[in-house]
Design goal:
It is built from 2 helices and 17 strands. By secondary structure, the protein is mostly beta strands. A hairpin with a 6-residue loop joins strand 8 and strand 9. The longest helix has 8 residues.
């Protein structure tokens, strides 16, 4: 069961979106719809308006699995994962509705748009992929390229994302296994009574 609480504090008690199906929320649209993955046998992408949370609308729903939706910064395009081609690939379609276009080849998962909307990132195995996109009018994209590869942690659930991208383009990821332990510091310094030590080291300036 998914619940919402308004950020402005106008409602203190959480409100249930549904009590019949399992939803995994992902992102709010500019029009106040919660875009989520709905799980029955596999997965569908749906939207639920905050004004009428029980009015669930199909966005990408078929006999195949559709999951992990990501809205473009301008809110006009939805990237997601679907296995309709026989394996998980990245697809993009117009939002709130539109015909899907396959962006990736050779597999893909965890789509995420850059902050300026000019690139679409996704993962393929240990590789981080990127494709230049145009989203202002019609959607178009260039051939995907490999940004970098590495043994980074993958999410334990297929609907989670194992990375994020800052507005300046830097990636936040976690190294897994021995690589992560090797990069860890050899020791940890614990400072007690930090406040008192700070008072002794920092003297008030003379007036």
């Amino acid at each position: 069961m998914t619940q919402i609480v308004l950020a402005d504090g106008s409602e203190r008690m959480p409100r249930s979106l549904t009590t019949q199906l399992y939803f995994d929320p992902h992102v709010w649209s500019a029009t106040g719809e919660l875009v989520a993955t709905r799980f029955t046998n596999s997965g569908d992408i749906v939207a639920m308006p905050i004004a009428s949370p029980d009015e669930v609308r199909d966005v990408a729903a078929s006999d195949s699995a559709e999951l992990d939706p990501a809205l473009s910064p301008n809110g006009r395009w939805l990237a997601y994962v679907s296995d309709r081609s026989g394996q998980n690939e990245i697809w993009v379609q117009g939002y709130p509705q539109g015909a899907p276009v396959r962006v990736s080849s050779g597999g893909g998962y965890e789509p995420l748009w850059s902050a300026d909307g000019r690139e679409l990132f996704y993962r393929r195995g240990d590789a981080m992929m990127a494709t230049a996109v145009e989203t202002a009018s019609e959607f178009s994209f260039a051939a995907p390229t490999v940004l970098f590869s590495g043994p980074f942690v993958r999410p334990s659930r297929r609907v989670d994302r194992g990375y994020d991208v800052a507005r300046d383009g830097r990636f936040l990821m976690i190294l897994r296994g021995e690589e992560n332990r090797a990069a860890a510091p050899a020791s940890i310094v614990v400072v007690q009574n930090f406040g008192e030590e700070l008072k002794q080291r920092v003297r008030p300036s003379a007036k």
